[in-house]
Amino acid sequence: MSETKSPHAGLTRRSFLKTTGLAAGTVAVAGTTPTLQALAADYEAGQKATDEEQIFCGVCRGNCSGTCKLNIHVRDNKVVKTSKRKFNSYPNGEIDRICLRGLSHPYNIYGPNRVQYPMRRVGERGSGEWERISWDEALNEISERWQKIREEYGDQAIAYTRGSGNMGTISGVASPMFNVFFNKINATQIKIARDQANTRGINRVVGNLGDWVLNDPSDFKNSKTLFVWGANITDAQMHDWHFIVEAQETGTKLVVIDPVLTQLAAKADKWVPVRPATDAALALSMMYVMVNEDLVNKPFLKQHTCAPFLVRSDTGKFLRMSDLGVEPQVVETQRDQVSSASSSNKGAAVGQSSTVTKTIDQPAVLDSDGKAVGADEAADPLLNGTYDFNGIACRTAYDLLVEDIMDYAPEAASEICDVPADTIVELAHMAIDGPCIHRLGWGSNSYTNGVHAAHANITMAALTGQIGYSGAGTGIGDFKPCWGINALVKGMTAAKYPMISALFLPEIMRTGKYKGKDYPIKSLYIYSGNPICNQVNTNEYLRDIVGNLDFLVVADYTFTDTVKYADIVLPAAHWFEQQDVVAISATQCFIYSEKAIEPLYESKSDIDILRLFAEKMGHPDLLSLTDDEYMAQVIDTPSLAKLGITWENIKENEDMYWYPDKPWIPWENAQFKTDSGRMEFYVENPTVQFDMGQEFDVDREHLPHYFDPAEAYEGSPEWSKYKLILLSERPRFRVHSMWSDNQYLRELDPEPTIKMNPVDARERGIADGSYVEVFNDRGHCVAKAVLNEGIRPGCTVYPKSWQQNQFKAGSWSELLTSVYDPVGVNESYFDNLVEVRVWNEG
């Protein structure tokens, strides 16, 4: 909550401002950093001089997942600095923290690229030619053009999408308010398609508890070995780094599996430089060792996994007791209409409950006497065996898995993943000698075989039984939802049209069809995101999506690559200029974010923009509640009330932990959210993440496999032209493209670079510090070469998400493939081959 601090005795306001530089309109932030000129701007609205400094409770709401609490220091209604603020409710000690990004927020709020007022494009798209217009002019034009588009092409022709630029619950990416408005006008929701392959691979085995879940990081110290697969936590999730240090100090061994010698790998007890895109082969080979040496946890496999389930050879389905003449059970339960923090585009009335009817048809297993019985009735189910059902051979799911992993003996897998066979055996023994945690990052997720890498890893947890208790687990662990919030606020109606993946959008825009039927999309509204910078294959996005749009509207607080191509730009408020609550965080806390200052210039919060849209589109009462009333609707649910969590309590306490007494452990006591309640490493009914009618190999999706990615491997179709794999890293000085134009951080990180192994550089005549052109058939970019022996030969690594205007030519996302796995439907950021040459400026 806000506090007030008086100036030091004997120091007047004028002398204080003069000393700090505020009297001249600047703030000196350390001796060598740039000064904050924007505080001298002729800005009047909401400013009232006082003799006090106010400190507000804030949250850093970028999707690094840290969601760190901040003190927001305000003088004369200007944010002059930020500092760390303690969590009040975290059960495992203080986790007050703040990184350089969190310390540099004033440079974002008052940056030279701040969008100050609504603008209309007057030149060609992308030319940067604008005219200032009023809010009323902007809203009239938007509403009129949207109405005409709907009349000519249908309601679905208006689409909306977002990125991850604001983790708020009312004016951010978890807000149900966008669904309230856009569902009302029957618009099409375009869902971003990134970082979903891990989720798909894990959740199809254990059920959906959330997108990216793992034991609370404070539990790392309770594991004997912490495996980190493809995550440079020191930079990408630096808020979790201290948990790893603390774990190592208490004796936990750190194993890092990564193609690159990252900062985290350099701190590891063991670094395993796996070949890119081959994590599934490594995990499958570790399972081979476990099975071959009879090290698997058989009691766990029998009781808590699908291992003993009989699988029919004709259909690939589980043999059910109904096949054997036993009638299924029908069970009815009541379920309240509440959801987790990730809002759906479907909805119902607030407080509505529904009756859920579930038919239970138990899978059949072979009991110890060789007879087929229901899985829950078996005294001691067999892991191995066959059964004849009406002439149809049935085998246990475990036998099918074992048959699968027998192709991955350490010697054979070593040829695939370039990890020595004896190292694979060593890793398998470490993974058996638990408790162990496997923390998956976004590395293996970023290829077209990423679903199977995660599927293999979670299957290894089924073999070891190391999941669901302290020190043991497998998952991603970036964001954890605070369950029980209500996404069905007043005015919510069900969406008329399906949610569509962003990866489908280029084809829809080219053809005007979705699933073979006419489905023109003519206008796109983008908020909290920068897809032209962050989505794969920029040139395709500009050509096929932007090039086929009649009308593009973007709301943002700063000029981005996407703002540059808009027809109408709306100035959005910064996080500190609006009240909100964060319900998705690394700490599984609800965290209150106070409004510290009035929105600068003519900017407005997302929810206020939606209110204006609703009024102009003929629905003036659609978003009629106050922000506080909507917060209460979202937070005040029976399940949260049992924990003492209410909107008023969150405001009073600032943060409230969902699990107040101990670290959160997902799947605790082997409670899985699959139909059987068990880990189903054999996927009976494989499905796709998004359905556009795409075909996929059902047989391949039953069990985890290794197969080559689309492009990033030796011998791929592009190998004759391009022989370097292009990898990216999440840098510590940005979160995706956020903080890109932060003057403070640009002194530390001034321009795009690409890291190369010196061997690869010498072969191409590239010197350290020289400018090089990175290119393939999709595009190119120019960056400064940084030679680094920690980069695997044959690979290059770039810090992601620089803006187009920060390159000498091109941009990183031009190079990235838009080919996707039909099951995961996930952007494959690493599945790219490129070449690099000395840049010829001419």
TrEMBL record:
Q: Polar residues composition bias: which ranges?
A: 336-355
Report if keyword Repeat is assigned: no
For this protein, the record's InterPro entries field holds: Asp_de-COase-like_dom_sf, MoPterin_dinucl-bd_dom, Mopterin_OxRdtase, Mopterin_OxRdtase_4Fe-4S_dom, Prok_Mopterin_Oxidored, TAT_signal, TAT_signal_bac_arc
> What Gene3D superfamilies does this protein's entry cite?
2.40.40.20, 3.40.50.12440, 3.40.50.740, Dimethylsulfoxide Reductase, domain 2, Formate dehydrogenase/DMSO reductase
Q: Where is the 4Fe-4S Mo/W bis-MGD-type domain?
A: 53-113
Report which superkingdom the organism of origin falls in.
Bacteria
- Disordered: annotated span: 334-355
Keywords of the record: Iron, Iron-sulfur, Metal-binding, Oxidoreductase, Signal
Gene Ontology MF annotations: iron-sulfur cluster binding; metal ion binding; molybdopterin cofactor binding; oxidoreductase activity
Q: Respond yes or no to whether keyword Protein transport is given for this record.
A: no
For this chain, the family text in UniProt reads: Belongs to the prokaryotic molybdopterin-containing oxidoreductase family.
Stated name of the protein = Molybdopterin-dependent oxidoreductase
| Provenance organism | Gordonibacter massiliensis
